[in-house]
Amino acid sequence: MAKQDHGSFVDVLHASGPAPDRAKKLDLYAFLVGRWDTEIVTHEQTGATHRGQGEIHAGWVLEGRAIQDVWLIPRRADRRPDSPPLPVAGNWYGTTLRVYDPSIDAWHIIWSDPANQFFTRQIGRARGADIVQEGKHESGMSMRWSFTEIQPNSFHWLGEAQPDGKDWWLQVEVMARRAT
Q: Which end of the chain, C or N, has fewer beta carbons within 10 A?
């Protein structure tokens, strides 16, 4: 009996669009699908800042029931094995799986960055015109990641932490422009 070819990994992962049975709810993150060029600013608690450039790639996956993205800094063209670790604007090469859950009317956000051994889970929801994702760092510290100023060709992303349980510290800003 001949082996049946069921396609490559990319073929079975990728989807051409959102699943029809929940397409309206999947609109929340649909803006993200595509390729983005990014300017990144990291903020130390001392007030020092560091700048870098990166890119984001996002697409529909898992029969259109999820969106997966890859965030990286520096850009692929500028990557070297000796790229500095965070906080010097970073050396990220991670992926997010964003899955809508109708039972809670929200999104499960799972971030994995093996370059920095940083993994986290969050819940994402619309908050006015923004999208806010909230979760805990493995240390127990609250984290909040937000998409703001969302436009068809740009967005502003904020990564915040609450180390003292009271005040939010802006750790990272990403200014993204859709790549041409």
A: N
- For residue 170, the surrounding DSSP H or E stretch is strand 169-178
pTM of the model: 0.90
DSSP letter string over 44-97? -TTS-EEEEEEEEEEEEETTTTEEEEEEEES-GGG--TTPPPTTSS--EEEEEE
139: Cβ contacts below 8 Å, ≥ 6 apart: none
pLDDT of residue 172: 94
CATH architecture of residue range(s) 9-178:
Beta Barrel (2.40)
Q: Where are the domains of the chain?
A: 9-178
In DSSP terms, 73 is beta-bridged to 92
Q: Which residues in the chain show pLDDT less than 50? A: 86-87
